[in-house]
UniProtKB/TrEMBL annotation:
GO terms for molecular function: 4 iron, 4 sulfur cluster binding; cyclic pyranopterin monophosphate synthase activity; GTP 3',8'-cyclase activity; GTP binding; metal ion binding. GO terms for biological process: Mo-molybdopterin cofactor biosynthetic process. This is GTP 3',8-cyclase. SUPFAM superfamilies: Radical SAM enzymes. CDD domains: Radical_SAM, Twitch_MoaA.
Amino acid sequence: MKDLYGRNIDYLRLSITDRCNFRCKYCMPADGAHLVDMDEILTYEEAIRVCEIMARNGLKKIKVTGGEPLVRRGVEGMIASLKAIDGIERVTMTTNGLLLYEKMEDLAAAGIDAINISLDSLNRDLFNDLSRSPASSDNFEKVVKTLDLPERYPDIMFKINCVPLGIEGQDLLQMAELAKDRPLHVRFIEMMPIGVGAQFEFVSQEDVLNIIKEKYPNVRSYEKKLGNGPCVYYEIPGFVGKIGFISAMSHKFCSGCNRIRMTSTGFLKTCLQYETGVDLREALRNNASDEVIEELIAQALRVKSKEHQFLEVDKKAEEKKDMSQIGG
């Protein structure tokens, strides 16, 4: 699958639900995101069919997202079905980690290749505030417990996704040091100004690197790829894992973009910033042929933008939904 700019699209971010058991402040409003009716969400069979069609046209990697994907029943079977598709090389997942520990054995049995755990702070009070978890809950403890999983499942790659927010108490150095003695990688993801996330202070890759260099001046670039996407990695002597950066704002990587997204309602979205794309659900539910679905996918690729314009004044067709609704 190629777009008009010759980019080879071989990576799909597949949202399977808009539901989430957190209401993180940079992801959705305080009263929660608008949830669609369950009959509007693609069935597993419908989503798998799209992936099969894409795989025949060059799709190789799938990232399962949400909302929070682990709140949907039967996700382990979905992972196994995706792994069984001819041509699919890697199936991974991004999760907030709340249900991960109890579901990890089944996910491993299903063949999951890698898991990204979203964790923005090791400060319990700040974690509860950011995720809007009750202070009396054990949500923080359940997520932190997942940091033991990389040693129990050495064949599965684990990464921590941390969004620097420019707020007191986040302690980004402490987050980076999770990779010191554990077989996992810590990635810092620049905030994208989408939905409620636009309200937060922007913290750049250089800002975080400078914090790390104050204690670890020998941090250096790591040239090997460690995943499907645009993350660039650094290594620190003596650390087991690596430190990564996904810096769409300060280091725009659109020229090498290899991904598209499908929302839980079957909308094939070609760029995180824009609302442009193609609705596949209607075709799927009207018994459209594979050839028709293929043409709709090709149609979406024809409108894939050359690059995002988050730093520009003119933001035509900008996405209005929150991250949880689009599987960002």
